[in-house]
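Progress report, Aim 2. The chain analyzed during this reporting quarter is listed below.
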Amino acid sequence: MTVAEPHHRQEWSAAGQGFRGADTHETRLLATMTQPRTGERALDVVCGLGSYAAELAAPGCRTPAVDWSEAAVPAARGRYTDLEPRPCVHPLDFADTAGTAAPLPRAGSDLVTMRPVLAFPDDKAAVSEHVRALPAPAADGR
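Predicted structure tokens for the chain:
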């Protein structure tokens, strides 16, 4: 699979261009459309600063999040420290799907979000297939 060159993604993120948080309107729309509930499992793919992960965790969803930017992972981990359950942020490596999937719940997710993930990959179909290889949605998912 061909994804945008790692140095390009890092430069983009380091310049703050990959970290635009979701605004209030966008996160309210996410909550309205998904109606997350306590105990559900959500996965935020390419989470950036974790805006979606935090919105989904606020009502009690267990929300792991992944990002391929070396700068985004610690930035997102340092935010939303007051949430319970707190989003768990992990590195994402599409070249190592098994390694990315290892810290994620094996039971899968009730909801998967992918906010600007398709801006960078050269092969968008391959990225979609790798996301599908992450733990499958839960049987009772939406």
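Residues 6-15+35-130 form a domain with the Rossmann fold fold (CATH 3.40.50.150). Confidence is low (pLDDT under 50) at residues 1-5. These observations will guide the mutagenesis work planned for the next reporting period.
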